[in-house]
Amino acid sequence: MFSPVVEIKKEWIESKYGRCVKQYNVSIKKTRNTTYFFEPERMSCLPVSLNDINKSLPRRWRCLLLWSISCLDDFRITFCLLKEYILSFIDKFFNREGRKVQKLQISYDYKESDALQVDSWIRFALKHSAEELDLRFSNGVQSSVEGFYKHYKLPHSLFRSKSLTNLTLSFCDLNLPSSIHLSSLKRLSLELIDISPDAITSLTSRCPLLEYLSFGGCNKLANLDIVISNPNLKFLEIWDDMTTFSETKFMIDAPNLHSLGFHVCLPRANYCLKNLPNLAKVSFYDFDPEVCLGKVCGEGDRNQLARLLGDIHHVKEIRLCSFFIQGLSIKEVQKLHFTSINATCIELETKLTKWELPGISYMLKSSPKLETLIIKPGLNEIWLGYDLKDKFGFDMKDFWKYEDFDFSSHLQNLKTVEIHIYVGSYKLGSVDEVLKRIENSYVQFVRFLLKNAISLEIMNIDCGEKNTSLCNDYGSLLKLMKMFAILPRASARCGVYIL
User: Fold this and answer.
1) How far is the C-alpha of 162 from the C-alpha of 41, rounded, in Å?
2) Are 361 and 332 in contact (CB under 8 A)?
3) Which three-class secondary structure state does DSSP give residue 359?
4) Fewer CB within 10 Å, N- or C-terminus of the chain?
5) From CA 247, how far away is CA 235, in angstroms rounded?
């Protein structure tokens, strides 16, 4: 016995009869080792027989059955017919076989006239004990015109399901009932939805097993205040983008939260993280450059970043994206006071560019309890503005040499360093240029760490993907290994490994 995945994606097409019909994709996920054959004479061996589908249709519609495709993990039947036939047939099949729906996916640009049909799809899934619902009522175009399109109102019965474990809702009206009880729900994702603080609290408090919650593009025109008391919620993830109204504010109050992820380019006027005593890990991810095209790190952004760092000063594990690091770089070159944090593990997404080195210095000065440092390539370079260009006039290769700070006391607990070198693509004739760039950035940074980390035990240096030109150029790799090998070390126990 296997649990089917029913996927409904609707788009208008013209049949050869000149009638408008709708296309549906119905997927049934295979959870047993069975081989499905798709030759015409073997169609009857499918769990949902195409012959049965044809027999269930009026003769004039049988020609609308188009094709079927197969893969290792699932099989998918794609056909075009009027909506009343497909749902009726699948419902009869599920009743006859006693099957449950594993997942229902609906993704299309909703129109108000479709409300009854969408209601029937959701009722069908809930009737057959669906475990996952993925309901997306816009492809992203409609959502950009607020108030022009009427949102689909979710049925109250959805919020009383005993079988749902995963729920994704996008561009719809939650229409929350007074009585909510999602007793099995573990993951909840809300996208392009307007939701009040009371609704967030009410919804999350009635999902006793909820572990993961995400907000994507929610409350673009209003404040987003997230107050959660659910003791089981462990991970919260946030997406904001530049279409969010700049005068709005953001606040999180979640005393039991363990991990927080931000995909953000700080479009709001203020971000506040409070009452997070159990927060152990925070990750700030680089924003999509296409979504935040032309983003400039202004003074407001720099102050926001410093405040956010202060809000998470107690967190033990912190991951910062290149946008965050470059914002801190500006604070550092302006010689502003740094915030002391208690992080023991810090991961920085950086290519060690000139615009990021001061920000890295800022973080090292702020982290006297640091034990593990991870350096991985970042994605973007932000636009700093002409008024700040002169602050970055230093020579990269000499940056760490002239840092006027006693790093040895701040790095005395550092034991593990992991560095992933950003090589990039280059032609064979520019190998020396790439090695020079690595020497001016990564080698100098490694020299600085080895000199000041008196308790360092292990440093792993990854020279990039195995299929990059540097990793295939053994002569260049040997030169690079020699550069690192001759560097002096403050810790006699430290081992440096080139991967």
Assistant:
1) 41
2) yes
3) helix
4) N
5) 27
What does the pLDDT look like over 298-353, one tens digit per residue?
566 778 888 899 999 999 999 998 888 888 888 888 877 778 899 999 999 998 88
Task: Write the CB contacts of 39 (distance below 8 Å, at least 6 apart in sequence).
Answer: none
Q: Strand runs (DSSP E) across 59-198, as ranges?
A: 67-70, 74-81, 103-107, 132-136, 152-153, 166-170, 172-173, 187-191
CA gap 469, 476 in Å, rounded: 10
Quickly list DSSP for 372-422: EEEEE------B--GGGGGGG-S-GGGTGGG--S-HHHHTTT--EEEEE--
Judge whether residue 47 has pLDDT over 50.
no
Packing angle between helix 115-127 and helix 83-97, nearest 10 degrees? 10
β-pair partners for 69: 76
Residue 211: CB atoms within 10 A of its CB come to 15
Pick from 132, 148, 117, 160: nearest CA to 24? 117
CB-neighbour burial class of residue 446 (10 A; exposed 0-12, middle 13-18, buried 19+): buried
Start-to-end Cα distance in the chain: 46
Distance CA 192, CA 475 (A): 52
Residue 116 tokens read as: 């009854």
Task: Flag whether pLDDT at 65 surpasses 50.
Answer: no
Provide the β-strand partners of residue 415: none
Say what the alpha-carbon torsion angle 293, 298, 301, 303 is, to the nearest 10 degrees: 170
Contact 257, 233 (CB under 8 A): yes
CB 54 within 8 A of CB 83: no
pLDDT for res 66: 34
The 10 Å Cβ neighbour count of residue 150 is 11
Bridge-based pairing of strands 12-14 and 20-29 is antiparallel
Q: What is the pLDDT of residues 449-475, one digit of tens each?
A: 999 999 999 999 887 655 455 656 667
> What is the distance between the alpha carbons of residues 376 and 356, in angstroms, rounded to a whole number?
13
Highest mean pLDDT among 63-77, 218-232, 432-446: 218-232
| In the block, residue with structure tokens 């990564």 | 442
To the nearest 10°, report the CA torsion of 470, 361, 414, 259: -90
Residues 65, 5: Cα–Cα separation, whole Å: 20
Please state whether beta strands 74-81 and 20-29 pair in parallel, antiparallel, or not at all (unpaired): antiparallel
pLDDT tens track for 357-409: 999 999 999 999 999 999 998 776 665 555 566 777 788 888 888 777 788 88
Dig out the tokens for 394 from the structure. 């230093």
Give 403's contacts (C-beta < 8 A, 6+ positions apart): 361, 448
C-alpha–C-alpha distance, residues 323 and 350, integer Å: 9
Predicted confidence at residue 383, as pLDDT, reads 58
Per-residue model confidence as pLDDT tens digits over 25-40 = 344 333 333 332 223 3
